[in-house]
Specification:
The complex is a heterodimer. Chain A is an alpha+beta fold. Chain A is built from two helices and four strands, in the order βαββαβ. In chain B, the strands form seven sheets. In chain B, strands 3-2-1-7-20-19 form a six-stranded mixed beta sheet, with helices on one face. The two termini of chain B are 42 Å apart. At the A-B interface, helix 1 and helix 2 of A face helix 1, helix 8, strand 23 and helix 9 of B.
């Protein structure tokens, strides 16, 4: 599985970083950056939580 | 035994996010959402949609795929009654449905000013409101905005970006001082003035005058303010806050007091919950009753309600968080800016392009306001969250 973020719609809330700092980072402005784009199984729950917490729905998990 | 059914009244962010959270927490029963319009994100309405940067389609709450995955049944309409004893919800002009759990997520609607029900006066809450205002703003020149809070200020900033004049009226001097602290608010209003926004503080709407429109219906022509001044305008916005959509619950026996009254767990009555803008609950960590109209609250409260439907008995202890975009400024507020808190610049320079101001009460961090400082704000949010985590 892959993680995709739509930075055009990111509002820099940092919600994803708080839920899953292993996958999501932030630029100084707060915009999301991906620290890795393939999703290891043990982080699936955390990434799902990040996806739910994101207030602009910019995170997607895609099947390979 | 028949399958469980949860009915969610309200199919906007809080409703859909509660539904999705139920599935995330392994809820196997039926989920029915009742809503009267497609779901979309509201934050872009006063910004990207109003400016025309985004087509309305870009505001969809979920992709079709994400929504379908939830497997919820959507009933178009409005919930019109809830019977706590019979455990049923009635849909307006429709059926009465039994539930095991009900979630009240009917949101809020804008407050209005008396006499403003004429063409040319707008509010901004729905996508329809945003598109109607955009059309008028681009056609009819200057806009008069009643309310210098976040929505009023975002619309003023958007208007200036479009080259449209904006006059903002508020009975309170720089009202965002209460939300941002005096120093940050004062800088924000100053920036608006520098961009050509005019403010008339200490004043309110006294009267409106109209002319007959092409269809014969009265149209806004001018507004009179409490100091006797008259401003000619074809378009005005009332942005003075919202009120909860709770009328449909009258006679239900639930506690209705500026929202649906809930306990620490967002429960209004056995098996009846509330989430999002409409929910007033007891924040155990802060020791106060709160009702929060922020987009992030819809997700967090929806998650807590879903967990509690699944029997997790989780008190709802969020760190409030919201943002506002005005010109090239992204403001972010986490926690609470308490009235007598001590303000301290933590990061950057308060006259610079990026900074964070922290607020401390009795030496303890209560909130932060960030000005183009997203990453730094997240660090403070982490600290605020740690204060509220059950282990501490």
């Amino acid at each position: 599985m892959r993680i995709v973020v739509d930075t055009d719609h990111c509002i820099a809330s940092g919600a994803c970083v708080l839920e899953c700092p292993d996958v999501f980072g932030q630029e100084d402005s707060g915009l999301v950056t991906l620290l890795q784009d393939t999703l290891p199984q043990h982080l699936l729950d955390a990434v799902n939580r990040a996806m739910a917490a994101c207030p602009s729905a910019v995170i997607e998990i895609q099947d390979d | 035994m028949t399958a469980q059914r949860t009915i969610i009244a309200g199919a906007s962010a809080a409703g859909w996010l509660t539904a999705e959270a139920l599935r995330r927490h392994q809820y196997q029963g039926e989920i029915v959402l009742i809503g009267d319009e497609p779901s979309y994100e509201r934050p872009p309405l006063s910004k990207q949609v109003l400016s025309g940067d985004w087509h309305a389609d870009r505001t969809a709450l979920f992709s079709t795929e994400r929504q379908d995955k939830i497997g919820a049944k959507l009933l178009l309409g409005r919930a019109s009654a809830l019977d706590v004893g019979q455990r049923t919800i009635k849909v307006e002009h429709g059926e009465t449905i039994a539930f095991d759990h009900a979630v009240i997520a009917t949101g809020v609607r804008p407050r209005t000013l008396p006499g403003t029900d004429v063409k040319g006066f707008h509010v901004l809450r729905t996508i329809g409101d945003a598109l109607a205002l955009r059309e008028k703003m681009s056609r009819q020149g200057d806009i008069i905005i009643f309310g210098a809070g976040f929505i009023g200020m975002e619309v003023a900033a958007t208007a200036r970006r479009l080259g449209i004049g904006a006059i903002v009226i508020d009975p309170v001097f720089e009202p965002l001082r209460l939300r941002l602290g005096a120093a940050v608010a004062s800088r924000l209003y100053a920036r608006h003035r520098a961009e050509g926004v005019e403010f008339r503080f200490g004043l309110s709407l006294a009267a409106i005058s109209t002319r007959a429109g092409e269809d014969g219906a009265p149209r806004l022509k001018a507004v009179s303010l409490s100091d006797g001044s008259v401003l000619a305008t074809e378009v005005a916005l009332v942005a003075i806050g919202c009120q909860p959509n709770v009328e449909w619950l009258s006679g239900s026996g639930l506690t209705i007091d500026d929202g649906v009254g809930c306990d620490d767990f967002c429960m209004a009555a056995e098996g009846i919950w509330a989430a999002g803008d409409v929910a007033r609950w007891r924040h155990r960590g802060f020791g106060v009753d709160m009702r929060i109209e922020h987009r992030t609250n819809a997700a967090e409260q929806g998650d807590t309600v879903a967990r509690n439907i699944m029997g997790q008995a989780k008190p709802y202890l969020p760190v409030p968080f919201f943002w506002s975009d005005q010109f090239d400024i992204r403001l972010q507020v986490a926690g609470r800016v308490l009235e007598d808190a001590e303000a301290r610049v933590e990061h950057g320079d308060i006259d610079g392009s990026s900074f964070v101001v922290s607020y401390r009460a009795d030496g303890r961090l209560s909130g932060v306001v960030g000005w183009n400082a997203g990453k730094a704000v997240t660090e403070f949010r982490r600290e605020l969250l740690a204060q509220l985590s059950p282990q501490t």
